[in-house]
Design goal:
The chain has about 280 residues and is of the alpha+beta class. It has 2 domains: about 100 residues, Orthogonal Bundle (Arc Repressor Mutant, subunit A); about 140 residues, Regulatory factor, effector binding domain (Multidrug-efflux Transporter 1 Regulator Bmrr, Chain A). Helix content is about 40%, strand content about 25%. Strands 3-8-10-9-5-6-4-7 form an 8-stranded antiparallel beta sheet, covered by helices on one side. A two-stranded antiparallel ribbon has the order 1-2. It is globular.
Length: about 280
């Protein structure tokens, strides 16, 4: 298997199994590769050891769980990721420079600074306003050509244009453009956020960078506006609507499905989609 594809698939697997055994031995066995070879390739491709990557992602995901499950105790969240109460607090503070208790108390419910433009404040709607526009839909699997970017989500607009120009030969009237994101930029360091830019292609596409995006049940919120306002909408759904909705987010990626991209006006029409259980 191509080394980049191997690392990408291992990241996907790790992100979906953060509450399970993710030892180097277990991961190497999952991908039928020597653990020493696997460890070396992962570090060379990502700049992080497998252990450091898993530890970071577990703590970041636990912070997301705190955000989405305000009634769940910090002790229970720590236990979900294999930490004792005291150990969890220590590791969390080391990662985020704040205790889990203080973090939980600071979770915004009405507004927050935009990390990409700190002088700007994002203001949230009410849960009822979000609910009025949200639908629950079932999606089929999508076979896509993709490129993975690890870095600041503020660069996604530029990255999309480069991606579309690079693969314009594969684009046609039936192409679906999909963005697959793994991180919350208010929690994960901006330099470490993961996003896949994707376009649907035929199953016989012979490029190496293809994959299947799994379908299932999703909440869908339509967005039509300037790219700079996407953050405010997504954070409002996550911080205000989802914790009160009665739905649980499935432990995998969210996706954005694009219907229109207007380069000149820096605006898009898209569906913001969150997987639910």
């Amino acid at each position: 298997m191509d080394r980049k594809k191997l690392v990408n698939q291992s990241i996907d697997y790790i992100m979906q199994h953060l509450d399970e055994d993710l030892s180097l031995d277990a991961l190497a066995a999952q991908f039928y590769i020597s653990k020493f070879h696997f460890s070396r390739i992962f570090k060379e491709e990502t700049g992080e050891s497998i252990y450091a990557f898993i530890k970071r992602c577990r703590i970041d995901q636990s912070a997301i769980d705190m955000k989405l499950n305000p009634d769940k105790t910090i002790t229970d969240i720590g236990l979900d990721y294999g930490y004792s109460s005291s150990n969890y607090s220590s590791v969390f503070r080391k990662r985020h420079d704040i205790s889990p208790n203080m973090f939980k108390q600071s979770i915004p419910t009405s507004s927050m600074p935009v990390p990409f433009t700190p002088k700007r404040i994002a203001h949230f709607k009410t849960a009822e306003e979000y609910a009025a526009r949200i639908e629950i839909r079932e999606f089929n699997d999508l076979f896509v050509l993709y490129e993975r970017f690890i870095g600041d989500y503020a660069d996604l607009e530029k990255n999309w244009y480069q991606f579309l120009d690079k693969y314009k030969a594969f684009f046609n009237e039936k192409t679906i453009l999909v963005e697959r994101f793994f991180n919350d930029p208010t929690i994960t360091n901006s330099a470490q956020c993961i996003c896949d830019l994707c376009m649907t292609v035929k199953q016989d596409c012979d490029l190496a960078n293809v994959m299947q995006i799994r379908g299932g049940k999703w909440i869908v919120y339509p967005f039509d506006g300037e790219i700079k306002d996407i953050f405010e909408t997504v954070q409002g759904i996550f911080s205000v609507w989802l914790p009160q909705s009665g739905y649980s987010m499935a432990r995998r990626y969210g996706v954005n499905i694009y219907h229109r991209i207007d380069r000149d006006n820096h605006s898009v029409a898209m569906d913001l989609c969150i997987p639910i259980e």
